Amino acid sequence: MTRLLAVAALFLAVTLTPAEEKKVSPAITDLANDKADKVETEKGKATEPITVASEKELEKAIPDEATRKRIAKLVDFKEQKLLVFAWQGSGQDKLTYSVAESYPEQLMFSYTVGKTDDLRKHVKLYVVRNNVRLSVK
Predict the structure, then answer these.
(1) Is the peptide bond before 49 cis (omega within 30 degrees of 0)?
(2) pTM assigned to the model
(3) 27, 78, 94, 133: least surrounded by Cβ within 10 Å?
(4) Percent of the chain, pLDDT > 90?
């Protein structure tokens, strides 16, 4: 009986009310790349994103002022962080993610190497809520 009450209490503690759910930002938001964005890709890896948790870190990660200003408007660094995946590789390279439905959510990123020899720049920007857990493969 005690275990049942403990499980019920845990469930109630993790479950959000409808009012709380409206206040919580989505686990992940894919930022559309602007063609004018300038993000360094030469030293980047698709499996090692740059995590940006403040505007100061954003200055280091993205030196281009116009790009930085556009992105800064889209991220609330108090509740969110920016993930920057920037790399060079095959034009067929793919980076996908899936969300495990739990609270807090878990994001699993998966990188698939393309099979063509055409060297392309890839930039993927994601806004992620601070309490979300990440894994990249």
Answers:
(1) no
(2) 0.80
(3) 78
(4) 69
